[in-house]
Structure formats: structure tokens, C-alpha cells
Design brief:
Elements lengths: L1 H6 L3 H7 L6 E5 L5 H14 L8 E5 L2 H14 L8 E4 H11 L13 E3 L1 H15 L8 H13 L12 H19 L2 E3 H14 L1 H10 L2 E4 L7 H10 L6 E5 L14 H9 L4 E5 L1 E2 L4 H11 L11 E2 L7 E8 H19 L6 E5 L3 H13 L3 E3 L9 H14 L4 H7 L9 H14 L3 H9 L8 H21 L9 H12 L1 H4 L7 H20 L5 H10 L10 H5 L2 E5 H4 L4 E6 L16 H15 L2 E15 L2 E4 L14 E3 L9 H9 L14 H6 L2 H4 L4 H4 L14 E4 L3 E11 L2 E8 L6 E5 H4 L2 E3 L1
Parallel strand pairs: 1-7, 1-8, 2-3, 2-6, 4-5, 6-7, 9-10, 11-16, 11-18, 12-14, 12-15, 13-14, 15-16
Antiparallel strand pairs: 16-17, 19-20, 19-23, 20-21, 21-22
Helix pairs in contact: 2-3, 3-4, 5-9, 6-7, 6-8, 7-8, 9-10, 9-11, 13-27, 14-15, 16-17, 16-20, 19-20, 20-21
The structure holds a DNA duplex (15 and 10 nucleotides).
DNA sequence: CTTATTGCCATTTTT
DNA sequence: TGGCAATAAG
């Protein structure tokens, strides 16, 4: 068995899989077989070390990863994995909280609901309204972001410290928001983590229970953990101390969600005796691809250097292409796709087109549509985001937990039944005044004992109350008969005549049909889980946001080119990878210019994209790009200049021969006039750029690389006589002068590129 | 209560 | 450019 288990592994993988007890940190480069290591580790623990499956807890970020790990472990162990705990951080926490519901803060019960971001926003809107805050200035979303950040750091409302007016608003909103959640018996995703950590930390009994059980804790994608998640695994592993963390700092691309790759370094500090194992053998890409990727990532600091290597020596060069416009970029991509099919025998499914922002999918999609090359876009509205699904799930939520006012408000007049805003408000006020809760209120209204609203709408309200109460009787029959959820679902859709309502919320017959199919799919899902308790079913739904029960029509999908964002591409691989829009401002994204950490993350994003490719890489940028309604000259990504010329081919440099003087004129002509045409500077960069000559020339002088030691630096505040005050976002040498990118406060001017010598700017200290 | 209009905004998003 | 959400009018 041991021989079997370890025989197919390379030495580093074997070390990791067969490591003894204690903390282990596996730094796994892209394509180095990290899932293999994790699954074999599980098999090794059970098969060789005799650990009972229930003593093992494996934590992932996505359901997909959890499912894959489970099935691979299962096949390695011939199905002997009963009790093995594999799940996402959130699902594991949700389960613990449900089991230990007695230890939750008062107001919460086992039947709590999980609010997704739409629910959160709806709730926060009520908070903002109550606080009399201008939602334009402080949007619910931004406030929620602030709160989420705090929760990820395990900061309570009381501990939250404000540092400016915005965070002061967050500080005020946070406790109110939490109170509202509790009033609704609801937790948001961040609460699941934070409350579990709090519970394990503060409750000796609960802590011991889970610590004793967790003999071995394995963590996937460790670089993506936030503070709460790291704390969670430290707590779970706190008794046995067997933490097996697998990750790669270079693939950390979720900082904006609180992920902190420095947890990898922290792990080494927290467990100084930990074994650290590097997986550097790559089983995916050619050496050329790896070399190109490495030229990008090696520029980052604060990382563990890795020397990825592969048996796939050589490979074809990275193709760099300049298109005139985004439209021609799309055409070029499709053209290359067809050539790959014709000449090299690839299938559509072997090819992926990646981009930094979703907006780029549109023009690419147009090109695919025009030529009839089959494609699919990853992302978009997930199943559970669909209106009809949300409506029906909201009904189930209210049946389960009538105090969930966000869901209640969603459905109280859906389908339309004559209950308007005024009635709703009156109803809520009335319930609040009685102080007895929603369930009792609905019961009283249903049987006519109490009438909060008179007249026509009062009648409608009473009917609604009866509906909910009746459905509750089906869901909870009283005796301990388990309810078939399908029965409940069918009764629900019949009673509210939801299908008849569909045309009202649809614009085309096709849309009606689509919604109908979605409802069928939901019914299928219900039926496959019909024996679950309603609250467990709802938790399941909330925690499986990605699941797409509808398989879209047939073989087209099965073999088509994949279009997806770089973020969505993480963890995937394709024989051929295109990255479109490799331009400064897109990749790296302009929002990251002013912050070195964010810029480093953009670099990792590029790295993730490059390392998805098995054989071929195509990178493209457009000379001018229309985005958000305006056409702007663009600059090739600074990252392109980091790839050594001998690894690339192509890079059409049609206009390379423009003289320095001409280029300078181009660059400055927009500076002095027409404020109505902002951001139209900087063409000179394009003319100067030459990715092939780059490596052989003096880099600092010839390339758009941010150069330290110039007069303006990112973050500086400046004053311009015409444009007012702004913040320096970027600065680089341009000929003998300095080209400064400034984001002006006045939105009318926005981001501008100016030549320092002529711009007559003042630095504000 | 539905429908039309306007105005604003636009990275990424595993749960 | 276009999609959505808040607002005004039918």
C-alpha cells in the first residue's frame, strides 16, 4: 500500500505526503501536483498512519475543490472514507454553528439563515436610511466592505477604530447592522467564520470537542486565508498540532477579499519547527512558459523564491501581438484560434481567452459570435442569483424563519397581491409595537384574530399570512414526521401561481421558458435533497453559490473556447492560453498604480494567467481601446517588458520608427488644450515600446518602467493651475522629461498624463 | 402599483 | 457604452 501510494510521486511530493506529525508547510508552485499531494496525504494518514477518517479535517475555499478532493481521496482509499471531514471554510463553520447553536449569541437559533451579499445590501440600506446617511456618499456596499474587512480581522463593533470620516460611518453602522442581523436570525458569510472562531476561542467545552477530534487539519490554498480563517485552523489544530498547509504565495490574488498571503510567513513564525517543503517540479507547462512566468514573478519581493522546472523542454515562443483596436484584437484571437485548430489539431476546448476585467469579454464575444466559433463565458449570473430562484428560496426562508424580514419583504408582494410599501411599513411597525415576533403576528393575522391593516390591502395581507402559515404546517407537521421537501415546494409554487407570474417579469417568451427551466432545475435540486431538514437545505443552498444544476444545451458547450477572467482561471489549465488587454491600466489595473502591494498582486495575476498554459501563450494589447464609451490610446503593459525578448515573438511594432521628436509632440499635444479630452496623452510610450529590443537595451531609459528617483512619486499630492489638486498615480521617465500620471480630484479631469517640465505643477507637502 | 425616465457608474468575487 | 437603480409620472 505504501509503495503504491508513494510510488508515483516525485521526492518532494513524497516527503510531503509521508511527513510525520507536526506542522507542515507545502509551497506548491503552479502545476506541481498540489491536489495530488493533499489527497495522497489523506490516504496516507488513513491507510498508513491509521488515523480514523473522522479525525481528519480538510479545508478548502470552494465547493468544487472540496468535492474533487473528496472523490479523489475516496478512490485512493477504495471508498473507506466514512466520517472524513472535507468542506469549505464556510460550510465547516456553518455546520459547527448549527450543531452548537445553543452557544450562539442570544437571538440566534439553529434555524438561522445565511445572508448573501444581496441580502446584506438590502439590510444595510435599511441601516443607512435609519442613520440618515446619504447613500450616495456612503454607499451600502462600501460600508459593508468596511465591516467585512473588520470581521475578517476578527474586529468586533466595539473594537473597531475609525481613522477618518468614512471609517467613522462604518464604526457607527457596524453595531446597528449586527443587531439587525440578529433580529433577523441571520448571519452573513463573514459571521460564519468570525462566530465560529469566537466560539472556539471562548468556549472551553466546544473548543475541546473540536480540537480533540481534529487530529489532522489540512488546508488548501493557504495563501488565500484571511486572519479569521488562519485563526480558525490554528484553533482547530491547537490540541494535536498537526497542520498541513498547502499554498503558493505567488498565486495570492484575493487580497481585496481579505486574503493575506503573509499568513504563509506567519505560519513559519508560529510553527518554527514546521517542515517546509517546496514543490518545484511542474507537470503542466513548457520551459518557455515557465521562464516567461518566472520573469514576471521574480520581480516581486517578500516571497519564497522558487525554481520551477519541467521535463517539457523548449516549447513555442510566447506570441505578443499589438492590435489596432479592441475589435481587431478580438478578430486576431479568433483567427489564431482557427489556425490552431486547422494546423495544430487543437480542439476548441483546449483554448482559453483570459482578461483582467469582465468588460473585455464583450468585444471578444462579438468576434466569436461573428465567426460562429463556439465559446462559453465563465462567470455571469449564477443560478442562485436568478430572480425566480431567489424569489422561491425567499419563500422557503420565510417558511423556515418568519423573522427573516429581508426575505419577507422580497416576497410579501411577489407575485403581486396588492400589498404596497405603505401596507408593508404599517405591518412592520405593528409587529414591532406588539413585540411578540413575526411568527405569532402572522398566525394571528391568518386566523383573523388581529387586523393591523384594514380594507383591501388588509385582506391581501391576511391571505399572505395564511399562505405562510399553511405552508409552515406542511414544512413542520408537528409530529416528528420528516417532511418531503418536494411536497412543500410543489405546494408553494401551486399556491402562489408562480408560473403564471413569469410573463410579468420577463421580456421575451424565451425568457419565460428559461425561468421555467430554472424552476424545474430548482425542483430537481429540492427533490434530490428532499429528506433534509428545511434549515439544512437552505444552508446548503446558501453555501453552494456556484452550483449550476442546469446543464446548458449539449455539445456546443462541451467543446467550445473558454472566456474567463484571470481570477476565474486560477486552478485551471489549458493547452493554449490567450491573455487579452495586456495594457497598462488594465493589467496592471489603473486602480493599483498608487499602491505597491496592489501592484504586486497585479503581477501575481499576470503570473497566474501565464502559468495556466500547457503549450502556447498569446498575449495581446490594443493600440487604442474603447472602454466605457470612450476610445483611449493605450500603453502596452509594463509587465510585457519584463519578459525577456528571446522568449517572445511577434509584438508588431508598426510605428516604432517615429522619431523621438514626433513622439514627444504626440505625448504633449493633449496636455495643453482640450480638457474635454482627458487621458489622451502618452502615445509616445507606444512608439517607444519594443518588447524584443527591450532586453538588449538599457531598460530604465527605454521602457515604461516606474523609475524611482524622479521628482514625482505615487501618492504625492500636487496642484495644477488648470486642473486643480490631485494625487500622483504613476511617474516614469519619458525622453529627457518625466511623464506624470495624476488623478485629479475634479472628476471632470480624471486621470491625466502630463509632462513634468511643462505642466507647471506644484507638489503639495 | 406599474411603467418610463433619468442619472450614475464601471476591477477582480472561491463563500 | 450599457446596465441598473432610484425617481417621477400614469
Amino acid at each position: 500500500m505504501a509503495a503504491d501510494l508513494l510510488s508515483g510521486l516525485n521526492p518532494a511530493q513524497r516527503d510531503a505526503v509521508s511527513a510525520g506529525t507536526g506542522a507542515v508547510l507545502v509551497l506548491a508552485g503552479p502545476g506541481s501536483g498540489k491536489t495530488r499531494v493533499l489527497t495522497h496525504r489523506i490516504a496516507y494518514l488513513i491507510g498508513e498512519m491509521g488515523i480514523p477518517p473522522r479525525g481528519i479535517m480538510a479545508v478548502t475555499f470552494t465547493n468544487k475543490a472540496a468535492a474533487e478532493m473528496r472523490s479523489r481521496a475516496e478512490s485512493l482509499l477504495d471508498g473507506h472514507i466514512d466520517g472524513l471531514q472535507i468542506g469549505t471554510f464556510h460550510s465547516i463553520c456553518a455546520r459547527i454553528l448549527r450543531i452548537e447553536a445553543d452557544h450562539l449569541p442570544s437571538g440566534y437559533g439553529r434555524d438561522y439563515v445565511i445572508y448573501d451579499s444581496d441580502d446584506q445590501t438590502a439590510l444595510m440600506k435599511t441601516v443607512v436610511a435609519e442613520m440618515r446617511i446619504d447613500p450616495k456618499k456612503f454607499s451600502p456596499g462600501r460600508i459593508l466592505n468596511g465591516i467585512s474587512g473588520a470581521k475578517n480581522e476578527l474586529i468586533t463593533p466595539a473594537e473597531y477604530a475609525s481613522s477618518d470620516y468614512f471609517t467613522e460611518i462604518v464604526k457607527r453602522a457596524y453595531p446597528i447592522y449586527q443587531e439587525r442581523l440578529r433580529n433577523n436570525n441571520a448571519l452573513d458569510f463573514d459571521d460564519l467564520l468570525m462566530m465560529t472562531v469566537t466560539m472556539l476561542r471562548d468556549d472551553e467545552i466546544v473548543r475541546q470537542k473540536y480540537q480533540r477530534r481534529s487530529e489532522h487539519v489540512l488546508i488548501d490554498e493557504f495563501q488565500d486565508t484571511n486572519t479569521a480563517q488562519y485563526k480558525l485552523i490554528r484553533l482547530l489544530g491547537g490540541y494535536h498540532g498537526n497542520l498541513f498547509a498547502v499554498g503558493d504565495e505567488d498565486q495570492s490574488i484575493y487580497a481585496f477579499r481579505g486574503a493575506d498571503y503573509r499568513n504563509v510567513q506567519q505560519f513559519r513564525k508560529d510553527y518554527p519547527e514546521a517542515r517546509v517543503i517546496l514543490l518545484e517540479q511542474n507537470y503542466r507547462s513548457t520551459q518557455i512558459v515557465l521562464d516567461a512566468a518566472r520573469s514576471i514573478i521574480d520581480k516581486n519581493k517578500n516571497r519564497t523564491p522558487k525554481q520551477l522546472f519541467t521535463d517539457k523542454e523548449g516549447g513555442s515562443l510566447v506570441t505578443v501581438h499589438e492590435a489596432y483596436s479592441e475589435g481587431e484584437e478580438g478578430e486576431w484571437v479568433v483567427e489564431r484560434v482557427r489556425a490552431l485548430m486547422r494546423r495544430q489539431g487543437y480542439s476548441y476546448r483546449d483554448i482559453a481567452v483570459m482578461y483582467r476585467i469582465n468588460a473585455l469579454s464583450r468585444t471578444l464575444e462579438d468576434a466569436f459570435k461573428a465567426t460562429g466559433v463556439p465559446y462559453r463565458i465563465v462567470g455571469g449570473v449564477s443560478f442562485y442569483q436568478r430572480r425566480e430562484i431567489r424569489d422561491l428560496v425567499a419563500y422557503l426562508r420565510v417558511i423556515n424563519n418568519p423573522i427573516d424580514t429581508i426575505s419577507l419583504n422580497r416576497i410579501i408582494n411577489t407575485p403581486t397581491r396588492g400589498i404596497g410599501d405603505k401596507t408593508v411599513t404599517t405591518f412592520h411597525d405593528w409587529v414591532a409595537a406588539r413585540g411578540r415576533g413575526y411568527l405569532e403576528a402572522l398566525e394571528a393575522i391568518a386566523n383573523g384574530t388581529l387586523i393591523p391593516v384594514t380594507g383591501r390591502s388588509g385582506k391581501a395581507l391576511a391571505e399572505f399570512a395564511s399562505l405562510i402559515i399553511d405552508l409552515r404546517k406542511i414544512a413542520f407537521p408537528g409530529d416528528d414526521t420528516p417532511t418531503d421537501l418536494t411536497v412543500l415546494f410543489d405546494e408553494l409554487t401551486a399556491r402562489i401561481r408562480y408560473v403564471a407570474y413569469l410573463p410579468e417579469i420577463s421580456t421575451t417568451p424565451e425568457q419565460v421558458q428559461e425561468r421555467l427551466e430554472n424552476i424545474q432545475a430548482l425542483r430537481g435540486l429540492v427533490s434530490s435533497k428532499k429528506d433534509l431538514r428545511l434549515d439544512d437545505f437552505l444552508a446548503d443552498v446558501s453555501l453552494n453559490t456556484e452550483a449550476e444544476p442546469v446543464e446548458e444545451s449539449g455539445e456546443q458547450i462541451a467543446n467550445s473556447v473558454t472566456l474567463l477572467t484571470l481570477h476565474a482561471a486560477k486552478g485551471l489549465e489549458y493547452p493554449v492560453v490567450f491573455i487579452a488587454g495586456v495594457e497598462d491600466g488594465l493589467l496592471p489595473h489603473s486602480r493599483s498604480f498608487a499602491d505597491a502591494d496592489e501592484m504586486a498582486e497585479e503581477r501575481r495575476l499576470m503570473y497566474v494567467g501565464l502559468t495556466r498554459a500547457r503549450d502556447h501563450l498569446f498575449l495581446s494589447y490594443a493600440f487604442r481601446r474603447s472602454l466605457y464609451g470612450e476610445s483611449i490610446p493605450s500603453i502596452p503593459s509594463r509587465f510585457l517588458a519584463d519578459i525577456p525578448a528571446h522568449l517572445t515573438e511577434g509584438a508588431s511594432l508598426k510605428v516604432r520608427h517615429m522619431t523621438e521628436r514626433e513622439a514627444y509632440k504626440e505625448a504633449t499635444r493633449w496636455d495643453s488644450d482640450t480638457p474635454s479630452r482627458p487621458a489622451q496623452t502618452g502615445r509616445a510610450k507606444i512608439f517607444e515600446f519594443d518588447s524584443r529590443a527591450a532586453a538588449s537595451k538599457d531598460r530604465a531609459a527605454s521602457l515604461p518602467t516606474p523609475t524611482p528617483g524622479l521628482k514625482y512619486k505615487p501618492g504625492m499630492h500636487v496642484y495644477h493651475p488648470k486642473f486643480g489638486t490631485g494625487i500622483v498615480v504613476d511617474s516614469r521617465r519619458s525622453g529627457s522629461d518625466e511623464e506624470v500620471s495624476v488623478r485629479f480630484e475634479d472628476k471632470q479631469f480624471g486621470l491625466k498624463r502630463l509632462m513634468a517640465e511643462f505642466a507647471n505643477m506644484r507638489i503639495i507637502p
